[in-house]
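Most newcomers find our protein records easier to grasp once they have seen one. Sequence and backbone structure share a record, each on its own labelled line. To make this concrete, we reproduce a full record directly below:
***
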Amino acid sequence: MSFVFDSTKPIAIGCDHAGVEYKNALISWLTSKGYEVKNFGTNSPDSVDYPDFAHPVASSVESGESAFGILLCGSANGVAITANKHQQIRAGLCWQNDVALLVRKHNDANIICIPARFVSYALAEQMVDLFMTTAFEGGRHGTRVNKIACS
């Protein structure tokens, strides 16, 4: 099933301690644009375990409660690995605009994972915007995406 951004549903967002600052800024930016955002935390810079926040975001997207997800941590690798344990999730780790574009066009990603310690906030915002506005290309990429799930 191809992901299509549904602006009538909230955007799920979560992070660990390394992503709190960017998460809060992204929430403000998205709500200023009229989007509803569901914050799954954390809301503190105190050390936490990223799976405790990645799983609820992934579950919200997987169930259809949220339109798509945004996850942040230091490298974004931990949250991406965690989210991708969910069968209906395709979480893409993005560190530049071209990658954010391709995870949507070629992989039909429904969660963007951002490495807060390795990208500027301005770039994080640009990547989220590209992620939201880029359609899945389908075709040969659809055939490949349909082979991802284990079930």
